[in-house]
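Person: At home tonight, work slowly through the protein below, taking as long as you need, and write a paragraph about the fold.
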Amino acid sequence: MSNTFEGGFVTITTTGFTAATGAASARTAIPTDSAGNLPRYIRVAAINESYVKIGGSGVTATTNDVLIQPADSEILSVNGQTHIAYIQGASAGKINVQALENV
């Protein structure tokens, strides 16, 4: 299996989650793919400026982590990590996280 996302179409067949961002870091377990496995990649979208960090069950995000710009999305490699932490930028907003299928 490759650990390099080479662009192109993505396949999302399971329900992810949407969470509110706030002034303090919060975290949620990374959603699984349709086979119940941890995905290799996730798609993260944000309504407002948000910052995210992937890690274990104690991961904490700061405003120095990966920026997800308003109305934009990023595809991030999970690398076996189990949780994603998130925090707001200038104002509260929401992030949406979807597992990409391991195909």
Notes: The chain has a mean pLDDT of 92. The domain at 17-99 is CATH 2.60.120 (Jelly Rolls). The chain has one domain: 17-99.
